[in-house]
Amino acid sequence: MTKSLLLGNEAVARGAWEAGCRVISSYPGTPSTEITEVAAGYPEIYTEWATNEKVAMEVAIGAAVSGARAMTCMKHVGLNVAADPLYTAAYTGIRAGLVVVVADDPAMFSSQNEQDTRYHARGAHIPCLEPSDAQECKDFVRLAFEMSEAYDTPVILRLTTRIAHARSLVSLGERTEAALRDWAKEPQKYVMMPGNARRRHPVVEAREKKMAADASGMAINRAEMRGRALGVVCAGVSYAYVREAAPDASVFKLGMTYPLPEAALRAFAAQVDELAVVEELEPFIEDALHVMGIACTGKAKTGLQGELGVGKVREALLGVSRPLRNEEPVVPRPPALCPGCPHRAVFDVLKRQKLNVFGDIGCYTLGATPPLSSMDTTLCMGASIGMAFGAEKARGKAFSRGSVAVIGDSTFLHSGITSLIDAVYNGGTITVLILDNRITGMTGHQQNPASGKDIHGNPAPQIDLAELCRACGAAHVREVDPFDLKALEAVVREEVAREAVSVVVVRRACALLEKTRGACVEVEACRNCGVCMRIACPAIARGTDGIHIDASLCVGCGLCVQVCPFHCIKGGDRA
Predict the structure, then answer these.
(1) Most CB atoms closer than 10 Å: which of 43, 299, 383, 497?
(2) Are 128 and 140 a contacting pair, CB within 8 Å?
(3) Is residue 529 a known part of a binding site?
(4) Is 520 labeled as ligand-binding?
(5) Residues near 57 by Cβ (< 8 Å), separated by ≥ 6?
(6) Pairing relation of β-strands 128-129 and 46-49?
């Protein structure tokens, strides 16, 4: 049997292919993005980047209801967006298997909150599987499809960052074609008007009871007995931590964390003197055991926040402190906008004009960090426009004329359009800056409907953002190149003063998309005033003898040339 060293995400994609999945629709979101990118390499699977997670969920549900195995992948906050169709799909059930892959992000490496997807599984009354390594990532996908069809329900496959982005050996198999199931008209099952939904709800409850009863006999939920002194209940990456930290402990490894195998857990608890739960994020398993009347410890020892690890688990279970490492401390490297990033000029202008900035999710969120320090809020995808409009209604038009909403092209298409329509419809006076860098940059350069290409890089219909905004009712829409600093300054000043909804499409491709570099700038007779440092370009460094430009980083965007008040910086030909 062929083996390969795969990321957890790569293994999920492979598992979908081997299980005969036909359709995958997703929205990119770290740490889940690579699943759909890798799946796009399998010609037997139709793959796409959807405009947002709700749309992706609906596409996958449509494919499953019409008879094809389907999957959708997203990060934890993406499931919030997709929850509406998912919760009702639990009522309708599916015709062919439907797997929802959700990657949680303990410690928030690339997220704005620590959210536990297991609560969505419980709220929607659908099963949740949790693999512990890449091999299980692959195997559990097939199992999830089989469970989905056996129980007539969507199934969540929950990953975390360490599972999604860690490599381990995976035994590869061949693809098993899953026959396209027959289409049949069943409006009482699939049309969720109140009368039909009332009949479906008891079906959901009965199905959940059956899954809970069956859980204790599932091979993925197993006890590994090694002594009576200590027993640990765990799942996912926590299982790997426990096995290394406490090799002599007995372990109950959960492959399905909802519904829990109550009978098997009771039997395990009866065989150990002390029972502990090791789980990241919320005390989901611990609380469930307490409800069952099973005494255990958990979060009081491991804590509620951040990631766990072998050292932290060893200390929690055995009271053994983590050993001190004899090594130099790691020098922190804060995230920064890339050299030549078109967003840099925007935030320089917004800061100098002393505007209130309602921000959004994307690379440009780094506009909040020093020395740019020009973003005041970031909440969730698409929130900037609605928040700016809400602030106007709370504080009046005078405040609004000193404020802007900043949103990226992909984020605007994801969930900003409806907020713009709301502001127009309700007579707002806000100014919206759409930072159009021609790509979904934050998650690694995925295409979107405004980029002109599909997931495979093939030509696709391209949304004209300016025309789209006009169609939404915005009468004042302008376009500007951020590398034309004077024009950008003038446009922002004029539009902020306008007593109507106005949109500025700030258009310049991401610096990493272009294969060529412009001529590097040079410094002549620098007066060391430090003004150019305000744009926070990584290529610019300040010494006692003046400013220096690192030619290995400079892409020749020319922004610093325009910023220097004494014209000491020369060159740059990309502006």
Answers:
(1) 383
(2) no
(3) yes
(4) no
(5) 25, 72, 82, 85, 86, 89, 100
(6) unpaired
